[in-house]
Amino acid sequence: MNQHSFLSSSPDYSALHLETDEHVILEVRKHWIVFAGHAAGLLLAAFFPFIVMVLFRLVILNHVSVLVHGSFSLPDFAPTLFTFFYTLWILFLWISFFVGWTKYYLDVWYVTEKRIIAVEQKRIFDREISNIRFDRIQDVTVEVDGFIPTFLDFGNIKVQTASEDDLDFIMNIVRHPDEVRRVIFSQHNEIGDGKQGVGQGSV
User: Fold this and answer.
1) Whole-prediction pTM value?
2) Nearest to 139 by CA among 156, 118, 158
3) Is residue 157 a contact partner of residue 100, using CB atoms and an 8 Å limit?
């Protein structure tokens, strides 16, 4: 697999403030199953009010009718009231869909020739950007656990730093985790070989 295969056709990296001789060689994103699960949950939630209404009619109204020894029906404004609250519910679900998509799409690692830039979208207007240079990386761990992660090729990645002051980089449910580790190690080794070459040349 080519290490440039994850890059979009016309990426804009101006917000990353890259150095003049620095280029993004890999974008690390979460697997599509993350957002698919979120979207499926919202789709089920959209039908939830109808399920509640059916159960209400079958259980509550029948029980009340038995207690009052006669038929009992909802007031005439009940459909209008239900439509109003259902519209609010759908609006809430759309907002949740938008927030979920924004977080899924903007949570990304950018791997350059010199470092890893991690962008974490915490909330809609709250983004955290951190980076770690390859010479500070101690180890890269990949965890792929289970049949589905193996079949769909996703897993968790942990980049451990050599310094206790630096936090480890962790991204869960990453697509193509082994390829990501290969690219990171490749750049890490190039940085190390370059430093050794400079040291040997200065002797």
Assistant:
1) 0.70
2) 158
3) no
DSSP 168: P
Report whether 144 contacts 150 (CB < 8 A).
yes
Helix (H) or strand (E) holding 186: helix 177-201
- Rounded to an integer, what distance in angstroms lies between the CA atom of residue 148 and that of residue 180? 19
Give CA separation, 123 vs 43, 102, 112, in Å.
22, 9, 26
- Provide the pLDDT for residue 194: 55
Q: Are 159 and 87 in contact (CB under 8 A)?
A: no
Say what percent of the chain tops pLDDT 90: 36
Report which of 179, 132, 193, 200 is spatially closest to residue 160, judged by C-alpha positions: 132
* Six-digit token string for 125: 């207007």
